[in-house]
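Summary of Year 1 activities. Much of the first year was spent building the evaluation harness for sequence design. The harness presents a backbone, in tokenized form, and records the residue chosen at every position. We chose the following record to illustrate the format because it has been used consistently in internal testing since the harness was completed.
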């Protein structure tokens, strides 16, 4: 009888260990961050990511060796959306759908509560509400590599309506302000200078004037400080954008481009950079226009990379060096 009870105890411990192993994913945790509960942390020995499902399904921390490259506004810590509340520029790594000027308002997607779930080792997803204004719901999936800073971000648009919808992916990620924005210009661009600037008002300036904080060098558009007008769009052929922060980080996004497909913005652009004074810089890949029938879904993936990189005080980064780093990311 004693042997029988010992056998039962051993079997119970084995099953408990299996259960614990099934419930535990390496490099993940549920944490509190910046006043928000139920955030999901993805981490390895070098990088850390924090996903925030309480307002808009954002990435609020993307860190290398403990330093966050994303813009943070401490006055927004713990803030959630309520009807009638005005929230300007939710901080962190945001995502969206477009086209910008023709899509309906969608506060449930942009400000609403999402559901976050750990899905594997250093993997998680956040799922939006079903948004009746746009007729879609969104799923954002994230995976951090076992080593290094590589973070894969995939957004899926699901048509939950009874009508065909036409939308595109739009990334809206705020990096810390005051750095150097780098965009590779397209030799075959539809824009005479390879880029266009929005404003003032509804103007789309396709031959913008020269100004001190904007230059083109070695085929790369460099925004080295606050421009007179903040919003730039480009039709890049190379699938990357980069940004050097004042405190010595190189933030790179890589993404697919589709030269044979239609991009739905009025400018036909597939990227945008919004350099807002010294406060923040928004780095935005844009996906092609998608026709999504009822019950169908489409996805777009951008990949993030973060490196230590000394900020050049002369504001002349070594572009050959930057290109070599980017080549290793593609």
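For this record, the design step produced the sequence shown next.
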């Amino acid at each position: 009888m004693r042997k029988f009870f010992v056998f039962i105890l051993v079997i119970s411990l084995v099953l408990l260990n299996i259960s614990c192993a099934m419930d535990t994913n390496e490099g993940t945790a549920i944490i509190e961050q910046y006043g928000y509960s139920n955030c999901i942390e993805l981490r390895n020995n070098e990088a850390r990511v924090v996903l925030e499902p309480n307002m808009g399904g954002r990435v609020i921390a993307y860190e290398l060796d403990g330093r966050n490259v994303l813009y943070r506004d401490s006055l927004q810590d713990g803030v959630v959306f309520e009807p009638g509340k005005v929230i300007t520029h939710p901080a962190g790594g945001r995502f969206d759908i477009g086209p910008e000027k023709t899509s309906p308002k969608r506060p449930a997607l942009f400000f609403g509560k999402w559901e976050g779930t750990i899905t594997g080792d250093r993997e998680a997803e956040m799922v939006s509400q079903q948004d009746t204004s746009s007729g879609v719901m969104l799923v954002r999936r994230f995976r951090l590599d076992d080593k290094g800073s590589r973070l894969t971000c995939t957004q899926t648009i699901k048509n939950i309506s009874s009508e065909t919808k036409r939308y595109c992916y739009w990334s809206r990620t705020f990096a810390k302000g005051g750095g150097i924005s780098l965009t590779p210009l397209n030799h075959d661009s539809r824009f005479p200078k390879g880029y266009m600037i929005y404003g003032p008002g509804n103007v789309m300036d396709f031959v913008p004037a020269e100004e001190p904080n904007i230059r083109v060098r070695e085929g790369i558009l460099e925004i080295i400080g606050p421009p007179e007008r903040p919003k730039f769009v480009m039709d890049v052929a190379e699938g990357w954008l980069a940004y050097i922060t004042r405190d010595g980080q190189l933030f790179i996004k890589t993404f697919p481009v589709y030269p044979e497909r239609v991009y739905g913005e009025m400018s036909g652009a597939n990227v945008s950079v919004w350099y807002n004074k010294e406060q923040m810089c928004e780095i935005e890949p844009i996906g092609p226009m998608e026709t999504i029938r009822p019950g169908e879904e489409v996805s777009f993936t951008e990949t993030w990379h973060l490196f230590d990189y000394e900020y050049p005080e002369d504001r002349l980064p070594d572009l050959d060096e930057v290109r070599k780093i980017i080549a290793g990311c593609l």
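The longest strand covers residues 165-176. Quantitative recovery figures across the full test set are reported in Table 2.
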